[in-house]
Amino acid sequence: MNNCIIAQSGGPTVAINASLAGVLSANMENGYFDTVYGSINGITGILNSKILNLSKLQETIPGFTDKLKVTPAMYLGSCRYKLPKHQDEPEIFDKIFTFFHEHDINAFFYIGGNDSMDTVLKLSEYASEIGSNIKIIGIPKTIDNDLCGTDHTPGFGSAAKYIASSILEIAHDTYIYPVKSVTIVEIMGRDAGWLTAASALARNEYSGAPQLIYLPERAFDENVFIEDVKKLLETNNSVVMAVSEGIRDKDGNYISASATSTDNFGHNQLSGAGKALESLVANRIGVKVRSVEVNILQRCASHLASLTDLDESAEQGKYALQLSMEGKSGVMVTLKRTGDAPYSTQTDYQDIHDTANLVKNVPDNWINKEGNDVTKEMLTYLRPLIAGEPVISFKDGVPEYLDVRHLKS
Amino acid sequence: MNNCIIAQSGGPTVAINASLAGVLSANMENGYFDTVYGSINGITGILNSKILNLSKLQETIPGFTDKLKVTPAMYLGSCRYKLPKHQDEPEIFDKIFTFFHEHDINAFFYIGGNDSMDTVLKLSEYASEIGSNIKIIGIPKTIDNDLCGTDHTPGFGSAAKYIASSILEIAHDTYIYPVKSVTIVEIMGRDAGWLTAASALARNEYSGAPQLIYLPERAFDENVFIEDVKKLLETNNSVVMAVSEGIRDKDGNYISASATSTDNFGHNQLSGAGKALESLVANRIGVKVRSVEVNILQRCASHLASLTDLDESAEQGKYALQLSMEGKSGVMVTLKRTGDAPYSTQTDYQDIHDTANLVKNVPDNWINKEGNDVTKEMLTYLRPLIAGEPVISFKDGVPEYLDVRHLKS
């Protein structure tokens, strides 16, 4: 028997199931593996014997991979478990490889972000040490776009599309009253500002929102910020800005509310950068101001996915399968950009040591001199990633996704 | 000449432009009015001479009404201006009717919520007093669904669809980790819980989220609430609840954070019901908990509009035109439900005195005995309103809406 097993891990994106669908579709085409198993809740499914037979689901559920491709979050569930070093806890690795052996597993695919790539690194090194031929392959995933070695990551394009579309709609909302107003949109991104940068894609011939963009890669100065806003208010009724949740001052302190807030149950609260800037603007400028925290909706809104993102994610899943057939191990699938106009990419791979535990930040020269916008290079880079809309089925007015009751207690 | 003028007012919905499109389409069909004008920023456009020739735009911009129908927010801008009594400030009314006369205006259509209907009432009473034949007609609008005399309001169905779809996607997100968690989704609705009730439409065969729904029409009890949550956590890993921003205790106090919170700029902050309950759950139960504030996205997300809502909104705009042709004045267009299965409606109208300044709350017997869910009757009422998806054009990955630069300073 020649089987493989897949797992997903880390935070969700709308494209991580597309990567899974890519592996499944590719295997259905070439029939390389007899059975594709899925491990529930990341690598912990293997440790706890919580496994699915994905091949069987693919055979018995009509349109399974098509629906999987557009289903949000993670069909196999997730974990935030980082493997220890095998020298420290060899029994865990022994348990994993015993499982592989017992189930004729010849390849393990891990779809996830940095921590998942660390798992790929550790498992592949262990496999080398014990002389195992099992292929350990990583498939990238993150809305933050901060994985090194790949042009951009699965999940990022859809989150970017959601941000850009939502900001355009918010902009329409801000234009309706003939009064000065400031709108602050706080976007996910503690360390890397890629997603916040994508807000620039909301601009079109009639709408310049957001006029200001603040990323964590540049030190935030509240005085300069207030001047930025005041200047725009001279010639604009509506000022819209996009702000990373992770903006910080020159000393590295996050711009957020202090821990001194309490509520009517007497408990401390911590607010984000958006709320902090909202107060600052209200006090220093006195203009009507509100903040919008995009929150988890930006990572699970499958109804507004980028078809480019989903297709590329599936493509990378498919390529992972091919890599295992070619005998590669200890590698991560990557995407190389081969052209901007027209946009074109090519799947590739790199040694896992070149990816795991590194962070790709926005290059400083893709942020403008003033630190409140992004450059043309950034827009050229971003634009193709949000193109195209998948067909989503609706039933009784709500999207029709894959049944995930197997994840519930 | 036989002209008319339209204005929009109050808070935006994704359907208020569909109502406007309905009037324009109907007039293009029957050619009753020579010119349809638009007043910018509600009734204040008439007072400040900020007017658009909508008929000309309809003739010169290809696909104008189709694109208008799906464009979010308000094409004519808005105002939050409530007319004074004409006995108090007769010069304002005189100015308005002089404008009507000078422009051969024979009908004024006001699309909006309660305050707008109050304007319709005042203008129509003044018209009667001075013996004017100008028809003053209201077209309803609100995401809150709290206008009396109509089965449901334009804008509500789309906001409900957005809530239901988003909660389903959030639910998928909550299922991924094998740990107990509570997710609180705070939804707009200070006084009426219709929109929060619509969260129930997110439930399907595999997902029961939200398992708890709290509306402002029932007194909120924190102890009962904690018991509700604890009970569900016994048999569910993920507990998702929908909460109106306007929930209050039995003494009428809003459940929200106190005004004692400050941020690192030293300013007071006020948090919502969602954040307050998040603290309560964290303290009393100690489970992983987060709150999501849907915020303005629920009222401007045209990419997820309900086609039923848009069609009905356009239908009501069209009927308003017909009413003016029939010589009616001082009335509001309404919608009567003529069937649940299959769902059917009929446009109607009612005297403006029966609507203005009244609020339609959720009937008490549509909330369950325990005060934490809605009944079957509510679901039967809600379900048809979110059906159908309009075709939205995308350009470079973002929705293509009508140019609204005429609203900007």
| DSSP summary, beta strand count of chain A | 15
Number of helix segments of chain A? Answer: 13
| Shape category of chain A | elongated
Largest sheet of chain A: 7 strands, mixed
Note the beta-strand portion of chain A. 15-25%
Q: Whole-number radius of gyration of chain A?
A: 23 Å
Please write the CATH class name of the largest domain in chain A: Alpha Beta
Oligomer: homodimer
CATH architecture assignment of the largest domain in chain A: 3-Layer(aba) Sandwich
Strand/helix succession of chain A: EHEHEHHHEHEHEHEHEEEHEHHEEHEE
Main interface by residue count: A-B, 89 and 90 residues
Mean pLDDT of chain A: 93
The spatial strand order of the largest sheet of chain A comes to 3-2-1-4-5-12-13
Uncertain regions of chain A: pLDDT < 50 for 5+ in a row?
259-270
